Amino acid sequence: MSAPTHHAPGGGFRNPWPGAGSAERGLGAFLRWRLQRLGEATEPDPAPGELPLAQSQVAQPRAEPGELRITWVGHSTLLVQIGRWNVLTDPVWSERASPVQWAGPARLVPPGVAWEALPPIDAVLISHDHYDHLDRDTVARLHERFGEELQWLAPLGFADWFRQVGVRHVEELDWWDERSLGAGAGAPPIRLTAAPAQHWSRRSPLERRRDRLWCSWVLQSGDARLYFAGDTGYFPAFPEIAARHGPFDVAALPIGAYEPRWFMRAAHMDPGEAVRAYLELGGRGALLPMHWGTFRLTDEPVLEPPRLLRRAWAEAQLPERDLALLRHGQTLVRRTGTD
Ligand code: ZN
Ligand code: ZN
Fold first, then answer.
1. How many whole angstroms from 222 Cα to the centroid of ligand 1?
2. Cα of 170 to ligand 1 centre, how many Å?
3. Which ligand is nearest to the CA of 76?
4. What's the rounded Cα separation, in Å, for the pair 157 and 78?
5. What is the pLDDT of residue 119?
6. Which ligand number lies closest to the CA of residue 298?
7. pLDDT at 339
8. What is the pTM of this model?
């Protein structure tokens, strides 16, 4: 039995699973959400110091063989040091996750790794085109700094956008496509695989809907394997991702931007669903929660996602040491291939 395709008839992309719909809610639902919110008191943003920056342990310039180091820069931006490779996911160093820098969600915490402190970057993975994941200024600055040395990987439909920013060194991948970098270079190469996610895309109401695909990523080098979920609702493909590419040393899963559920459920997991996804991904290795505490995008209090995650983790009777609930800037260090 083959699953229904994510290539929509007539062009563009869709979520193939029943119940997901487009995951993007229409203007009517958006207005209903904003109106509903007017009548409700929202919890204030965290006070200074409630989201402290940790001192990162970035390996300069690179990690040791057999080491997996992941530093949470903030939101879905991870600095992944896997074997001898340095990779960024959904890099955002700008002050706001927005088309303009004078309005839109502003950072609650500075980036956990200062721009100047970045080691040489080999590859950047993009999960989809929303402003909190694909930031034009950051893309331009990375390109200026690392130039053609840097391999950009994105799902289908991104080449034109990158070309407008001056970046030509980009490869577009469909779900389950993979690319290897560094084959024959002596040290283990890195294999990067685009995997499914349940989400949507569009940067402006003027663009056609869903012309750019969305995805999650598997990173594998030597014995180390990381799953980076990008932005996703809870959906049925986690067991297949694990069967094809697991077991994972670390699963980086989004836990924020889930309220109100009637509006957000198809596109964003809540912490309980993230724990369920972790179990379906094999239930081993570390869960590294992301997509919280950096930009306020939705209605839940900023500090609620980690609270609910701890509760769901305890209820599932999972070991404390495998919950990698990092502070901004904090580095998770795992040895791989030792058991
Ligand atoms: Zn998104
Ligand atoms: Zn997002």
1. 31
2. 20
3. 2
4. 23
5. 97
6. 2
7. 46
8. 0.95
